[in-house]
Amino acid sequence: MMSPLKEIYKTYIQAINDRNWALVTSFLHPTVIWNQKPYVADEYIALITRATDPAPDLKFHIDILLADDDESKEGQMVSARLLIRGTPEKEFLGFKPTGRNVEVVEHAFYRFVGGRIVEVRTVIDMEGVRDQMVETPGLVR
Predict the structure, then answer these.
(1) CA pseudo-torsion sign 69, 72, 109, 16
(2) Domain count, the chain
(3) H-helix or E-strand containing 114?
(4) What are the pLDDT digits (tens) for 15-52?
(5) 74, 65 contact by CB (below 8 A)
(6) Do residues 122 and 81 lie in contact, with contact meaning Cβ atoms separated by under 8 Å?
(7) 90 in a domain, yes or no?
(8) Which InterPro entries does the entry link to (predicted)?
(9) 0.85 exceeded by the pTM?
(10) pLDDT (mean) for 127-141
(11) Cβ neighbours of residue 72 under 8 Å, at least 6 residues apart?
(12) Residue 24 belongs to a domain with what CATH number?
C-alpha cells in the first residue's frame, strides 16, 4: 500500500504536468517557503511556470520518491529526485533554446502540514542544463 503522502505528491506532480494550476494551488499552504523565501500561492505558481512556459511539452517525472508520513513532527516530509524533460522554445532557465530536448535533474524536499505544502527546498543541476543548452563549436552530440 502506497503512503497517503506519496499519493498526494504524485497527484500534485500530475497537476503540474497537466498545467492545472487551480489543482496545484489546492495543495499549497497560502504562503509557501521556497529555498528560504516566502511566496504566496500565485507567486509560487509563477516560479513553476518559469520552467513550463518556455517548453510546452515539458513534463516532470518522478525518479525517486521518499515520504515520511509521521505527523507528530513539524510536518510530513517528501524527498524526490525529479527528471524534467522538454524542448524549450524560448529562453529556459537563462539559456537560449537550441531546438533540442533537454532533461533537467532536480532534487526537491517538501514539508507538508495538514496535507498541504508549506516549504520547498530545491537544487537543480544547472551544469547539466548548461551542457545541454549551450552550443559549443566543434562539439559533436
Answers:
(1) positive
(2) 1
(3) none
(4) 999 999 999 999 999 999 999 999 999 999 999 998 89
(5) no
(6) no
(7) yes
(8) Cyclase_SnoaL-like (IPR009959), NTF2-like_dom_sf (IPR032710)
(9) yes
(10) 70
(11) none
(12) 3.10.450.50
Distance (Å, rounded) from C-alpha 120 to C-alpha 13?
14
Measure the CA–CA gap between 123 and 126, rounded to whole angstroms.
Answer: 9
Q: Is 37 exposed, middle or buried (0-12, 13-18, 19+ CB in 10 A)?
A: exposed
Cβ atoms of 76 and 70 closer than 8 Å: yes
- The answer to the question of residue 138 being in a domain is no
pLDDT at 138 over 80: no
Residue 109 one-letter amino acid: F
Give the residue numbers spanning the domain of 25. 4-133
The residue among 121, 118, 127, 129 whose CA lies nearest residue 51 is 129
Residue 88 within a domain: yes
Whether residue 139 is contained in a domain is answered as: no
pLDDT digits (tens, 9 = 90+) for 65-118: 999 988 777 889 999 999 999 999 998 878 888 888 999 999 999 999 989 999
Looking up cell 504562503 gives 31
Residue whose C-alpha cell reads 494551488 in the numeric block: 25
